[in-house]
Amino acid sequence: MKKKPIYLxxxxxxxxxxxxxxxxxxxxxxxxxxxxxxxxxxxVDATYAKELVDYTIKVxxxxxxxxxxxxxxxSAILVVVALVFLVRKNIQLANYTYIGxxxxxxxxxxxxxxxxxxxxxxxxxxxxxxxxxLGAKGYAIFGIVLNVIFLAIVFYKMWRQQKELTETxxxxxxx
Length: 175
Prior knowledge:
- This is ABC transporter permease.
- Helix content is about 80%, strand content about 0%.
- By secondary structure, the chain is mostly helical.
- The chain has one domain.
- The longest helix has about 50 residues, at about 125-175.
């Protein structure tokens, strides 16, 4: 009996959700200072509020850059293609397509981290800057580690499938 690739279904569903969230981020508008004006009336220090608004706008503009849009759209396409291969029971091509998605996701994490680093210079308070920088590093590291774990799972399963195929072929040759 052939085993079902449950691991790939789980990984692709998680990746599809993440891609959908990223696509939603692309279609949401870049905030403006006017749309974020209520932050200053919420009791936050005026200097910090202005810096936070500027930081949010700069990070959002980076998220709407052409390169990031291409990364997000390509990753969504790769997830859909991998799902199609999986539905058609072409597990090998689904694995390869998913590996491409994971490498693209790692590249996207690095690109977003670099964009946030540029925006951190907007904070004048070193404590605020350090806190935002730690958050950005933590987010980037989490994204990369998660994708490397996904990659390791797929490579391990591909190795196991190849090993089982080789053992099956050897048994057939002996029979």
